[in-house]
Every structure is written in C-alpha cells, then in structure tokens.
Design brief:
The complex is a heterodimer of chains A (229) and B (353). Chain A is an all-alpha fold. Chain A has two domains: 116 residues, NADH-ubiquinone/plastoquinone oxidoreductase chain 6, subunit NuoJ (Four Helix Bundle (Hemerythrin (Met), subunit A)); 69 residues, no CATH class. Chain A is built from eight helices and no strands. With 353 residues, chain B is mostly helical. Chain B has one domain. Chain B has a two-stranded antiparallel ribbon. In chain B, a hairpin with a 3-residue loop joins strand 1 and strand 2. Classes of the chains: A mainly alpha (229), B mainly alpha (353). The interface between A and B is medium-sized, with 31 and 32 residues.
Chain lengths: 229, 353
C-alpha cells in the first residue's frame, strides 16, 4: 500500500513537472512560459520531498520559485511583452537537434535503469538541514566560498550596470528621435525639483515606463508631424 | 485499530489540516469584525453592530453578500491568470498554518500523549518562508492579468515591496535559528521553556525571560516591521493606496474573488503573528504550562490576539509611507540592521553555546 502511494505521488508530481515543462516550451506568451516554469520548480520540490530531501525542496521553492522567477515575471510585466514572438525561421534546425538530445536523455535513463539498477532505499540523512550544513562548511568549504565570491561579483556587476543605465538622461534619449525642443511631452520624472539625489527602484521603473510611453506616442504622432513641417 | 499505521496517521493529519483551516478562517472572519469595531472605536464611531448581538454575525452576512454578488470578469483580462491569481494567493497563505505548534504535549483520553502540532518536520521555518515567497505570484498575476493600469501599478508596487521586505524578514529570523540550532518550530518553542535555572518559584514567574525576544530584541523589531510590510498593511499599504490607485492589484476583482484576496490578506496577517509568537514570544510557553499543559493553547491564542490587535491599532494610528521612503527604509535601514543582528548573534552563539 505504501509502495503504491509513493508510486502514485511520483506519477502525480512527475507528470505535473513534465506537463509544466512542455507548456513552458509550447507557450508563445513569455509570461505563460514563466509561470509554467514556476510550476516545474514547485513540482520538482514536491518530488524532492517524496525523496526525503526536504531541505533541497525548500531551497528549490525559496530560491527558484520565490526569488529568481519572481524577478523574471517582474521584468516581463514591466516590459509588457504581450505580442507573440514568432520563432525565427533560421532556428528551425534546432527542432531535430532537440529531438536527438531528448532521445539521448531517454537512452541515458534506460542505461541507468538496466545496468546500474536502483540504489538501496535505506534511510539516509543526506537531505536534512544539519547534514547539508556540516558538509557545506567542512568538506565543501572551498567550492562554497568560491561560489560566494562569484555571487558577490554578480551583485557588484548588476549594480554597476543599473547605475550606468540610470545615469543616461531621458532627454538625450528622446532628443535622438525627434527635435530637441519640439517634444510636447514634459518629463516630470527627470525634473530636478522632484527627483532626489539617487535613483531608487520606483524612479528607474518610472523613467523606463515614461520613456517607453513617450517613444510610443512619438512614433505614432510626433514623427509624422515632424515630416510634414 | 492500529494508531501507528502510516495510513491512519495520514488520515489523522488530513483531518487535522481541515480542522485547522476551519479554525483559522473563523479567526480571520472575526479579525475582520474586530478590526472594524476597534477602528470605529479609535475614530469615535460605532462600527457594524446590527447583525446579531453587537455585530457578532456580521462576518457571515458579509460572506453571504460576497457569494451572492455578480461575478464580473473584465473583457480584456487574461482570463486564466485572472482566475488563477486569487487561488494562488489564498492557497499560499493557508498552506503555512499546518506547521505551527499550538500547544505542548497533552494526554488525551484513548490516544495517550499527543503533540499539539499538525505536521512537525525538519524544515518547518524554511517551508513557511517558501510559501510566503510563492504568495507574491497571486498579487503579481492579479495586477498583470486584470489589464488595468491601476492594477498593474498596484501589482508592481506590491511585488517590489514584498521582494524587498522578504529579505529582511528572512534575515531577521536567522538570529533565532542560530540561538536554537534548529529549523523545526516545535523544537524552537520547546527550547524557550526553561532556558535559565532559578528557584522553582522564580522559574514559575520568570518563565517569560526564557523567550527568544530577550535574546533577540533587534531581530524581533526588524521582524515585526518587515512582517507588517510583507502583509501590505498600514503604514506600508502602498499597493492598495486608495487615493492613488483605486484599490491596487484587486481593483478589477469582484464578489468571491475579491473575498479570496481579502481573506488571504488576513490569513497572512494571522500567520505572521503566529510566526512572531512561535519564534520570539515563546509560542505556547507561559507561567503554569508545566503543570496544566492545556493552558498553553490559551497562552498561544492570547499572544496571537495581541499581535492582531497591534496590527489594527497601527492601522488606526499611523499614516502611510511614500513609496520611495518605503524602499529606502527597507534597503538602507532594515536590511543592514538585520545583517548586523546576524553578525552579533553568530559571534555570541559561537562563544556561549
């Protein structure tokens, strides 16, 4: 009975993971794909729990579903990519490559099943918090430290990029497309009376959205008028 | 009947989860009523007092109204996500309630000793944090799928705020974890039972001194502030600032779907209160629990009610932040303070434990 239950749970969560993964690839709308990927992460976390590795499951949900994908969805929402992105024709050759790779993967699984066989199902404490912490800070301390430095580098790099992007004044951007003084849209966000000394998240977001709105409006109306005059 | 068979245990757990859901939803319903009455008291009004004696049946009247109202789905909405968003919000909010221990081990007739917790596992605290972080999707998707500018801005604000304050929320708990050496909430509460040894009489009266709040005062304050921000309550309720954004991310939601968001907000309020009680205020601990274990349940409820009252009190007292103030406060004050707390706690834990 217990065996049956665990098989049922595996089928349920494994099926969910595969279904969500397929949906992620098939969907054309990027937001649908992103949410499907969240589904994949959550079902993988459920699988980890059934495999007696609760810590990894929790980290999977917190880091991937809770942090990384939230940022991805956030960016998709900000850019508001609603139009379907057609697949470029020159990437057609990727379809047979994908089929071949999946065949290799399935062959690997069968190889594992037939020649290696299942590992012993004796209870182990590999997935528990204490054992992971002990391993991380004793045996694998060097990779752990290197990874930390890597992440620190990524943080510093991201901050540098964000600063540079925020420093480009909006007026310079819109001045390229239309006449410098001709733009009828005032720019309240870049106004030195309103904005503070340093750009915060809202300010960057606001600037970005305002810049997009102005570009869109100018491409619709401003440029046409500019050609007439 | 063999009580130790896994299937029977699973059935009992299932039963416990259902009971807990009903109890929590009842508490939430009456929190809403209490909020309306206490806010009215603060503002010199009466509040809802017509349905039942002093308004005790008001939550049910509200629920009936929500159910009977017309369901409106905006024409331009992305229907699937529009319907999915409230479900994610309420599910993620309700899922955390099963890990909280609400009482010590009691002797029940026929059962023998029973731990008053529905599910006890190794990573309970991480599970709570994970579910909290998944709850963001409900709000983000609601804002995006409604296809309305107010909803979108509200959703963006809410998710930016929740991502930012989640960090200081998680980091403020690290101190407690360091002091306890475990992520299992039941053990965390048990460790707060008898930390110091006095004479028996003093042990009775000074029991509260064992609570984590006295070891982690900074962590507690940081947790409290970020928890209020995480649940989008006053003074951090920017996502639903009605003067600017109509109602924020749930502008386009009506009837029962709005009720689900509303309930999710209050369930979140409840769960962060429970987490504060469990981690910092000793959970079910209190004078006299050692002799009368059932007293622990009442201590537990009392502490939660204190936090819920604090929420309502703050709502009646404080004005709202501006959004850039909110972000600056979170990133430049709370987060460094939380990291400082971790450094100090780790140093102390290294030398004294």
């Amino acid at each position: 009975m217990l065996e049956l239950t665990s098989v049922f749970l595996f089928m349920l969560f494994g099926g969910m993971a595969v279904g969500c993964a397929l949906s992620m690839i098939v969907q054309r709308n990027p937001l649908y794909s992103a949410i499907s990927l969240v589904g994949v992460f959550v079902s993988l976390a459920c699988l980890y729990v059934t495999l007696a590795a609760p810590f990894i499951a929790a980290v999977q949900v917190i880091v991937y579903a809770g942090a990384i994908m939230v940022l991805v969805v956030f960016v998709i929402m900000l850019l508001n990519v609603e139009t379907e992105v057609r697949r470029p024709l020159r990437l057609r050759y990727l379809i047979p490559v994908a089929a071949g790779l999946s065949f290799v993967l399935i062959a690997q699984v069968f190889f594992m099943l037939f020649f290696v066989g299942p590992v012993s199902s004796a209870p182990s404490n590999v997935g528990l918090t204490a054992s992971i912490g002990a391993g991380l800070f004793t045996e694998y301390i060097l990779p752990f430290e290197i990874t930390s430095v890597l992440i620190l580098m990524a943080i510093v790099g991201a901050m540098t990029l964000a600063r540079r992007a925020a420093d480009i004044p909006l007026a310079a951007r819109s001045a390229d497309s239309s006449g410098a003084a001709g733009s009828p849209f005032t720019d309240p966000i870049n106004d030195s009376r309103i904005s503070g000394s340093r750009p915060g998240l809202t300010e960057i977001v606001g600037r970005e959205m305002a810049a997009r709105a102005i570009e869109r409006l100018e491409s619709r109306t401003g440029r046409g008028q500019g050609e007439e005059t | 009947m063999n009580w130790n068979s896994p299937l029977v245990q699973a059935g009992l757990t299932m039963l416990g989860i259902n009971i807990a859901f009903v109890v929590v939803l009842m508490i939430v319903a009456y929190t809403v009523l209490a909020e309306r009455r206490i806010l009215a008291l603060i503002q010199g009004r009466l509040g809802p007092n017509r349905v039942g004696y002093g308004g005790v049946l008001q939550p049910f009247a509200d629920l009936l109204k929500f159910i009977l109202k017309e369901e409106v789905i905006p024409d331009q909405a992305t229907k699937f996500f529009y319907l999915l968003a409230p479900i994610i919000a309420i599910t993620a909010a309700l899922m955390t309630i099963i890990v909280y221990p609400f009482g010590p081990t009691v002797n029940l007739p026929f059962f023998g000793p029973v731990k008053l917790v529905i599910a006890q596992f190794d990573i309970a605290l991480l599970y709570v944090l994970g579910m909290t972080s998944v709850g963001v999707y409900g709000i983000m998707l609601a804002g995006w799928a409604s296809n309305s500018k107010y909803s979108l801005m509200g959703g963006l604000r809410a998710s930016a705020q929740m991502i930012s304050y989640e960090l200081s929320l998680g980091l403020s708990l690290v101190g407690v974890v360091l002091m306890s050496g475990t992520l299992d909430l039941y053990s965390v509460v048990e460790l707060q039972t008898n930390r110091w040894e006095f004479s028996p009489v003093l042990n009775f009266f000074l029991q509260p001194l064992s609570w984590n709040i006295f070891l982690q005062p900074l962590g507690f304050i940081i947790y409290l502030i970020s928890a209020i921000a995480e649940t989008n309550r006053v003074p951090f309720d920017l996502p639903e600032a009605e003067t600017e954004l109509v109602a924020g991310f749930h502008t386009e939601y009506s009837a029962l779907k709005f009720a689900l968001f509303f309930m999710a907000e209050y369930v979140n309020m409840f769960t962060v209160s429970v987490l504060a009680t469990t981690l910092f205020l000793g959970g079910w601990n209190g004078p006299g629990v050692a002799t009368f274990p059932v007293l622990g349940v009442f201590y537990f409820l009392g502490k939660i009610i204190f936090f819920l009252f604090l929420y309502i009190w703050l709502r009646g007292t404080l004005p709202r932040f501006r959004f850039d103030q909110l972000m600056n406060f979170g990133w430049t004050f709370l987060l460094p303070a939380a990291i400082l707390n971790i450094i100090v706690s780790a140093t102390v834990a290294y030398f004294y434990y």
